[in-house]
Amino acid sequence: RAHVLLAQIYFEQNEDEAARQHADSALRQDPHLLQALLLQGQLADRRGDSNLALHYFFEAISFDPHDPQTQFLTARQLYRSGAGDQAAPLLRRLTENAPACGENAGEAWWLLGGCYRQQQRWKEAAEAMAAGIELRAANAIDWRELAEVQLRAGDLAAARSSLQMAARLGPGDPDIESLRKRLETATNDPVRLTRGAAASAGDSREQR
């Protein structure tokens, strides 16, 4: 267990080689040690080795398929690898049990929306991404992506609200202007955006 604790400390300090060595030592003592497997997967992901990361995450989930952290890391890696169809069932399971998901709940909802987006299931994507954006530190790009999915889903009022948040957080983003014109065409009504003002908590609640 000492090796796992040291590996975690080094991982958080971005001292990846030391973290990897201690995780290796932990796995030599116990090949089924969940936290060591997850750390090795995260270290592989940092190095850009998606296949190795998935190897460790799949090994971890085979030992404990019900652990929320293991499910989340495996699903996130699958999504990043372009396997949204495989990630979606894990993410659905997580979002159905949000308390167990803890601090990863917002990201799990957002990634689930991304999976639906890949499949062009626009209404489901919009619902999942709207749930996720309330639980994560969203930036202008996040709000713009949500607005585009809501536009494709036909929820024009929600798209306008999300695009307004995007304009406030990212006033210089040219894609926002492009999306504004598309929304204007869809609504057949002028869409005016307030740019550059700090987003308020009340604005974000408009999604509810």
Description:
- This protein is an all-alpha fold and 208 residues long.
- Helices cover 74% and strands 0% of the residues.
- It is built from 13 helices and no strands.
- It has helices at 2-12, 16-29, 34-46, 50-63, 68-80, 84-96, 98-101, 105-118, 122-133, 140-153, 156-169, 174-187, 201-204.
- The chain starts with a helix and ends with a helix.
- The model is unreliable at 198-208 (pLDDT under 50).
The helix-and-strand class reads mainly alpha
Kindly report the average pLDDT value.
Answer: 91
Sheet having the most strands: none
Shape: elongated
Order of SSEs: HHHHHHHHHHHHH
> How many strands appear in the DSSP assignment?
0
Rg, alpha carbons: 20 Å
Unreliably modeled segments? 198-208
Helix percent reads over 70%
Task: Provide keyphrases for this structure.
single chain; 208 residues; mainly alpha; 13 helices
Outline:
The protein is mostly helical. It has helices at residues 2-12, 16-29, 34-46, 50-63, 68-80, 84-96, 98-101, 105-118, 122-133, 140-153, 156-169, 174-187, 201-204.
Topology:
Layout: H1 2-12, H2 16-29, H3 34-46, H4 50-63, H5 68-80, H6 84-96, H7 98-101, H8 105-118, H9 122-133, H10 140-153, H11 156-169, H12 174-187, H13 201-204
